[in-house]
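Shapes recur. Our protein:

. . .
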Amino acid sequence: MMDRLRTRARRILFALSAGMLLVPLMVIGPLKGASASGEKIPLKGIEERESDPLWRGSLTGAALDRRLKDFAAAVDRREEPALLFNNFLDHLGVKRIIDYMEGRDRSCHGVLHALGEVLVERTESLKTSMMLCGDACTYACVHGAMKRYFSSVITKKEEAPLLDEVSPLENGRGEERAKRRLRREVLSLCGEGSKAVQDFFVGNCAHAVGHGFASLSKNLSEAREYCALFQDEERRYYCESGIFMELRPMLERKIYRDGLTTAAKREIALRFCIQNSEFISSCLRFLLDPARGPDDIDHLGRQCATLDGKRRGGCFYTVGYISRAYVALQPEEINRVCGGGDPADRALCVSGLAFVKKDHRLKEKLARSCAYLTDARLKGICEDQHRRFYYQVDNPVMKPMFSDSTLPAQVGDGGRPERLSGPSGD
């Protein structure tokens, strides 16, 4: 046990010393010509990004056109993303790769993680990589850059000195000291006053850090311990979501076997997430397939109704989440999808469905589904959740997912959720 503590303390301290882990992020300003709020990038930031040879690439004219066609063909045949970006990055540049991928799918989140990883490998600078990534594909490139940075500093842990010696470790004070240092760095990055990236919500930051923790530890329980550096439930939730997104392939191989039915996989996933996550929707959303029809939705809803407290809330939230594609095609079905359980359950289901990222491919279709709700209270909640953007914190509808003592949200006269008087889960 003591060897394990010593190893973990050394890892944390090294991560801090090899570039101070997350500090480079603090000097990055807005990353595009104009942010979602309309603020311009400082001229110096634009010049720095556009002067980087990786930004525009080396080809022009007919040679560029041919290489772009080759890139499109490689994307169509689903070439492995890291290999794809490594092969084309020097010729096309980051800008053309991002423009092409976002032109195909504005959200394009999963595939562009690899571009951020490739950029960190090439530049060996988290600051430069994030500057080049910007907010591409709902910050997927940034997430990948952070993930790779965590991994690369840890692989070199034997080559660099510790920031300072920790002694004695035997009574646990060393590990606690290391955790305090890591907490300061992480919270400075993911705090309300952070200037890391324009419009990079603190929940999004916590999610990206979760990717990094998972990449650092390669172990679910240890990565979740790192998420405890966030003292509030909401950022721990987003941190856990980054962990489960990162570890999803490994976890699916571990808990599923070939030939399982959808219903059997759902039951296995629910048991696993209850046992291995603080907030089960942070886990379930990455282990469940999208609902294909009413039977899938009703089955999960019945399972959710057997739970209580924040587990129940997170489960009903997941009902909405897995039903997004189904409701986007059949908007009137929102009443069926989110018609189960008590009022708090139904509110969470609506939130899971309508609370999406800014550039989510289904965002406008889901907005239209709100109009089909026959319950005026839920309709107000749906419209409110759709106006928000995923990763924003202080979402009152989600509070029952985070604490068993949180009371359900209501809709006031203005159509926005209000808190009932009573104990808070904050």
